[in-house]
Amino acid sequence: xxxxxxxxxxxxxxxxxxxxxxxxxxxxxxxxxxxxxxxxxxxxxxxxxxxxxxxxxxxxxxxxxxxxxxxxxxxxxxxxxxxxxxxxxxxxxxxxxxxxxxxxxxxxxxxxxxxxxxxxxxxxxxxxxxxxxxxxxxxxxxxxxxxxxxxxxxxxxxxxxxxxxxxxxxxxxxxxxxxxxxxxxxxxxxxxxxxxxxxxxxxxxxxxxxxxxxxxxxxxxxxxxxxxxxxxxxxxxxxxxxxxxxxxxxxxxxxxxxxxxxxxxxxxxxxxxxxxxxxxxxxxxxxxxxxxxxxxxxxxxxxxxxxxx
Length: 309
Prior knowledge:
Helices cover 47% and strands 14% of the residues. The chain is of the alpha/beta class. The chain has two domains: 25-78 and 163-271, Lambda Exonuclease, Chain A; 85-162. Strands 1, 2, 3, 4, 5 and 6 form a six-stranded mixed β-sheet that branches. It is globular and about 60 Å long. The protein starts with 9 loop residues before the first helix and ends in a 7-residue tail after the last helix. Mean pLDDT is 91; it is low at 305-309.
């Protein structure tokens, strides 16, 4: 990634420095990726006979995070997703960033966000019903929040050149055992070609250590599906104008594979009532429907522990 540094502000130059390829970088060898693949397949093989292509075990960033956070909460919330102001803000922002990358002329944030809202409102398979149902004040607040975040994105990030191969909302999946087990993800932004990609995840608030786990999962999916590992991972806080970066090594991919294996076994065991679900406290307690009956969760919330979500 090379840009005219003199035309960039300090925040934009910091992004370039964080994502740039170092002179000593070299791609992971095929043998390292093959070893990670072997570990992943061996670890999941005992579960494969329990699933089929029609009734597959689908593992995503959110399901992995939920199962490792609190198994009881995962069980009661896994089929109960509902849109709210926070999730809607993130979805509209991602659509607005996507549109801004291909906007003809100067992309005024308000105009881009209006177009993003209009396009998403027509999507009846996803957020469309939520956007249509909220009142004028809620819609205005949603628009204002996204305009603020898109403005920060334009202030923080250098203009993304076509030569960098920028892709937003990039979906990827890796199927094991003829589709019986599937790993799926959607990256906020990818830059570069296979074998040297940078994967970026945007956060409206602060950066939490678990965000690295999310991106490691993205890296695992990319490496397994393409046979080429991405080069670098970056969680970018629009609020702090700061990137948390990590190079993709064999150790990073091995850690991601072990986390997937552990989650897959735990999910299978508790969904099929083979053992009791484990209750754990954490940020998930804030929205968990078990709060009324969960003493550890109430104690955690009473402590008002800071935990960026």
